[in-house]
Each structure stands twice: as structure tokens, then as C-alpha cells.
Amino acid sequence: MQRRAFLGLALLGLGACTTAPRRQPAGARPSVPDGLDGPYRLDSGDKLRVTVFEQTALSGTFTVDQAGYIAYPLVGNVTARGLTTQELAGALTLGLKKGYLNNPDVTVEVDTYRPFFIMGEVRNPGQYTYVNTMTVETAVAIAGGFTSRASERGIEVSRRLNGKIYTGTLPPNALVRPGDVLRVAQRLF
User: With a cut of 50, which residues of the chain have pLDDT below it?
Assistant: First the structure.
């Protein structure tokens, strides 16, 4: 089935792309499927602020580790990868109800998002701190701008969603998400 990578990315709130759809070769990473425009999902590298009402010893900042867990007092390792902040708060609430607190009031917020990466024809390729509502154009500027050989049309993105890696092409005004890997291609002439 032919998928439209740019349409799936547009549904993620990233804007439309001007390139034509293309068929993915066998064994290639899938293009972003339609309808994955839901809430932000946690993954490795996210730093979370957990607050338990009137329980300062249980409140603090926790980082999602490489395995996708946070190490939380009394409860132990709690799966965070793939969950929303509300879902993680629910999991922590259930863990704390098991013999520790009668009616815990838990909130979880993202304190610092995981970084994004930009490679290819930019002056300073590498890993950068994600800023909320960042666009592709902003990401390129953070990386020092395009090199003289850069193709400025349609930046390739690789994105992990629900444990799978998807690829597509983004225009300059498209939104970047935490953990995205952007690649600026070299122009032909």
C-alpha cells in the first residue's frame, strides 16, 4: 500500500510537504502513518517533574532511562516510554496506593524534553536541546544555518513513534518533535 509520508507528518501537526508521495522499498523504514497526531509520548532522555501533593519526599525530577523507565521512590522502576504524562501519573498513583498512601494526588510534567539531532549540510551538525514549538527552520538556525551545498527544500526527518522508526520530508515551517533526527541533503548542482 502506498503511503504518503508528507500527509502523515502533516497530521502530526508538522505541516504539508511539497514533494510527491513515494513507494517505500522492501525493508525500508515505514513512512509516517495517518492519524498519529496524538499527545506527546515519553521516551529515553525526557526529564520529568513528578509532584505528589503534600509529599515532598516523593516529589522531584526523574529522567527516563535508556530502557524507558524512571526509578521512583517506594515503587521502583516504572515504565514511562510510550506513555503520556497523564498515563504515567496514573501508574505512579496505582503504585503508591499499594500500601504506601491512601489517596495520592500525582501530577507529571515534562521538565526538559529529550534532544533532537540534525545532520548533513548544516554548519554545526549534532545534538541540540529541544525547544517547545520548534520549527525545522529554527532547528537549522540553531545548527548554524545551511552550508553553501545544502538543499533547502524538504528536510528529511526520522521519528520514533510507538517503538517504530518512521521517515518523511518536512518543509521549513513544520514542527520538530523531541528525539527527531533531521537530515539536510546536499543539492544536486
Answer: 1-37
